[in-house]
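Homework help thread (please don't just give me the answer)

Our assignment gives two proteins as sequence + structure token strings and asks us to describe the second one. The first is just a warm-up. Here they are:
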Amino acid sequence: MLTPYKDKESGKKEQVAHMFNNIARRYDFLNHFLSLGIDKIWRRKTIRSLKSIPSDSNLLDVASGTGDLAIAALKLKPQKIVGIDISEKMLGIGMDKIKKKKLDQIISLQQGDSEDIRFEENYFDAITVAFGVRNFENLTKGLSEMYRVLKPNGRVAILEFSKPKQFPLKQIYNFYFKRMLPFIGKIISKDYAAYTYLYDSVSQFSEGEQFIDELKKLGFKNCTYKKLSFGIASIYNANK
């Protein structure tokens, strides 16, 4: 199993929480800086893929981090948005952001495990995840939990990195993600392993049709995906 810190004996879940606690202070800056701001566009497109859900919906944002996708989801005019994440420091930054924007009546963030979601079955109208599913310790369990708490006909939108296949973007992407990202990430966040893990986790992630097959096995229907920015990221949509 791929973990962020190869010299530690703790499990992936604990290491991922430690990693995000480590880089939380610089996470938003690095996200926007390293993607040249394109990550904001990707999030908006992810939310637009849910435009068919009712305007008074309850929405769950899994692996919510500092809350950027939860905030973007306000475009859907939901009744309530709940964000869960295992990183206490990421959530702290997210809650500060939400309070400053005076959104805490609609958006709440809480520490929670994506593989053991503390809500009853058929609770949410929609679920979002941005760059989180590849960090699950047990992908099948995490996706199963999302399925469990989703209402019948409810919709999921999952934004995740993928790998460009065409020359020369494939070569440029590999150089940037494998060489430049860890170097820049180390300088700014002081955690080299976090951005080495980013490349490795994307490389090992079952993207495209393989990920669609994972969703179908768990009972999701109407499963589709759309590549973004020449395949650097993908949005996966499905219904319960």
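The one we have to describe:
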Amino acid sequence: MTKLSLRRAPIILFVYNRLNHTKQLVESLKANVGCEQHDFYIYSDGPAKSLGSQEDQTKSVEEVRSYIKTIDGFASVHIIEREKNVGLAGNVIDGVTTVVNKYGTVIVLEDDLVLSPYFLQFMQDALDTYKDEEKVGHIQACDFTQNPQLPDTFFINWTGSWGWATWARAWKQYHIDGQYLLDQLVKRRLTYQFNFDGTYSYTKMLRKQIKGKNSSWAIRWYASLFLSDMLALNVGHALVQNKGFDGTGTHCGGGELYASSLYMKPLRVNKIEPVVASKQAHDIYCDYYRKNYGFWPKVKRRLRRTLQGDFGR
């Protein structure tokens, strides 16, 4: 039975210029049990001059904006239209900060996701169950390992950004300065653990953010919670799919590595005690990264893409 909450967590959706993706996400969200009890905030970024022609971006952004103005079925709908392009990171950091500080909790979505009908129920139950547990800072519902040995729910020292939730008490730990975060990881000799025992270079992603080669808010959120010794509750069944690996997004390569099948049943939140990271889950993630991001797997993918005529990824 779903736990009752005095106030349902608000939902934030970040959109840009992908009308079909946005429609798909909203349709799956409206199919969720209890969606009408949640306030809905939609942040629409402004057109970017650097992506194609300004005219083309303006048209696609306006198409999305026209559509989101028709959305109903929630406790309330609030639309925030950026006059200028602030980028996904700027949009997320400002939007999450504003909404979570107002409500105390928040559920966060981006436009390239598709949800199980029980996504919201799981998120709300998890937010209620761990609201007073200081060591839990993040709830996520993605599973791309597709490993049947994962528990239904477990704690892990990692934060996924595809359909997630948090509390104001945890978001206060967010540190925007990537250089500070990297310096702390190095100083405290935590880079090996941060990189899942050296199987995936999250520190490389952080260094690229520092150099301006990416603007990832998510890598800084992961590092912020990691350094604060705060865990994420994750799932062994995917309640979220990412449909953004089709060439329409800024970072769209490697979609075959993150395939998942939506779990179309309610997923119970049974409180896990004590609050410690699951070694079993950690080892499964390390194994996944080792098998997919080691030297030879990368060589094989590059050869396959070359033979298929894909020279750009």
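TA reply:
I won't write it for you, but here's a hint about the kind of observation we're looking for: Residues 1-5, 250-255 have pLDDT under 50 and may be disordered.
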